[in-house]
User: Which sequence fits this backbone?
C-alpha cells in the first residue's frame, strides 16, 4: 500500500521540477498536502448532512412564507393503467385505444389519466423551492466568505502574485474556502440522482466532475491562489440564479425577472470575461513565463478549458432564452431548469 501511495503521489507528476512533497513538509509554514483531500471528502459528507437538516427543518417554512403549495394530486388508482404505466409512461395512440376498451372509458380520459400520472411523478414545487433555497443560502455564504478571505489578498488585485514565490504557504482561511467549495460540489455529485432532474443533466455531471478535479489538482499542486480566484468568480452569478428560481416557483414573476436579469448580466460578465482574462490567461501565459509545465498542470488546464466550454454552451442557452423573452414578451425561465408540468388543458 505504501508503494502504491508513493507511486500515485509522484513528485514528477504533481509538482513542478525542483519541488517535492517532502520538501514542502519540511518547510516552515503550512503547504497544501495530498492527505488534505481526505478532509475534502469528509466535508462533502458534512455538507450533505447540513443540507438534509436544512430541508427537514426549513423547506415547509420557506414554502409557506413564499406561498408555495403542492397542488398535485395522484389520479384515481386503476390497476390496468398502473400496470401499463410501469412499462411506459407515454403509450401510443393504438395502446391508449386498447386500454380505453379494457377499463371501459374514453380515450381522452385515458390520456388525461396518464398525463396526471406523469405529472405526479415529477418533483413537487416544495422540493424544487427547497433545493433552490439551499443552493442560494450556500452560494451567498460562500461568496461572502470568499470575499472576506480574498479582500486583502495581493493576488486578487494583481494575478502576478499567484506565482511570485511559488510554491506559497496556504492561508488558513483559504484552506477552509477550498474545503467548503470542494465539499459542496462533492455533495452535489452525491445527490445528483435524487435532486430535481434538469435538462442539462449530463452537462451538469461533467461540470461537477470538472470542478472537483480542478479543486483537487489545483490544491495538490499548490495552485490555491489562482484556484481561489476561479472559485469566487464562479460563485457570484449563482446567487442571483437560485434566488430567481425561488421567486419563479413562488409565481412572483416581477422579482424573478429582476433577479434573472442580474444573473444573466453577472453570468456573462464573470464567465466570458473575468474567467478567461483573470484565470485562464494567468494560468496559460503568466505561469509559463516563470515555470515549465508538468503533467498535473497540463491536466488541470484541460479541465479549466472544459469548464470554459461549458460556460460558452450555457451562455448560448441563456442568450437564446433572453432574446426569446425580449421578442415574445414571455416570462424568463432558466434554460437549464427541469421540465414543468404538462398541462391538463385539452
Assistant:
Amino acid at each position: 500500500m505504501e508503494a502504491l501511495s508513493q507511486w500515485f503521489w509522484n513528485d514528477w507528476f504533481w509538482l513542478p521540477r525542483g519541488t517535492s512533497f517532502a520538501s514542502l513538509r519540511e518547510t516552515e509554514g503550512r503547504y497544501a498536502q495530498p492527505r488534505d483531500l481526505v478532509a475534502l471528502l469528509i466535508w462533502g459528507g458534512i455538507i450533505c448532512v447540513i443540507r438534509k437538516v436544512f430541508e427537514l427543518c426549513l423547506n415547509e417554512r420557506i414554502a409557506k412564507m413564499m406561498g408555495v403549495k403542492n397542488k398535485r394530486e395522484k389520479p384515481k388508482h386503476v390497476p390496468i393503467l398502473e400496470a401499463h404505466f410501469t412499462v411506459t409512461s407515454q403509450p401510443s395512440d393504438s395502446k391508449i385505444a386498447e386500454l380505453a376498451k379494457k377499463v371501459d372509458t374514453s380515450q381522452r380520459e385515458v390520456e388525461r389519466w396518464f398525463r396526471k400520472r406523469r405529472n405526479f411523478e415529477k418533483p413537487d414545487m416544495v422540493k424544487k423551492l427547497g433545493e433552490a433555497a439551499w443552493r442560494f443560502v450556500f452560494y451567498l455564504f460562500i461568496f461572502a466568505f470568499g470575499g472576506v478571505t480574498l479582500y486583502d489578498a495581493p493576488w486578487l488585485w494583481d494575478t502576478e502574485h499567484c506565482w511570485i514565490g511559488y510554491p506559497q504557504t496556504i492561508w488558513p482561511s483559504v484552506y477552509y474556502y477550498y474545503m467548503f467549495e470542494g465539499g459542496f460540489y462533492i455533495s452535489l455529485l452525491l445527490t445528483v440522482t435524487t435532486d430535481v432532474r434538469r435538462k442539462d443533466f449530463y452537462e451538469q455531471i461533467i461540470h461537477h466532475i470538472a470542478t472537483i478535479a480542478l479543486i483537487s489538482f489545483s490544491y495538490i499542486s499548490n495552485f490555491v491562489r489562482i484556484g481561489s480566484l476561479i472559485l469566487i468568480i464562479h460563485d457570484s452569478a449563482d446567487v442571483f440564479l437560485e434566488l430567481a428560481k425561488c421567486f419563479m416557483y413562488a409565481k412572483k414573476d416581477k422579482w424573478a425577472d429582476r433577479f434573472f436579469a442580474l444573473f444573466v448580466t453577472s453570468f456573462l460578465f464573470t464567465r466570458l470575461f473575468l474567467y478567461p482574462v483573470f484565470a485562464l490567461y494567468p494560468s496559460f501565459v503568466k505561469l509559463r513565463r516563470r515555470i515549465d509545465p508538468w503533467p498535473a498542470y497540463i491536466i488541470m488546464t484541460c479541465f479549466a478549458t472544459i469548464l470554459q466550454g461549458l460556460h460558452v454552451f450555457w451562455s448560448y442557452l441563456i442568450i437564446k432564452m433572453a432574446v426569446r423573452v425580449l421578442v415574445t414578451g414571455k416570462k424568463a425561465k432558466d434554460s437549464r431548469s427541469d421540465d414543468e408540468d404538462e398541462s391538463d388543458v385539452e
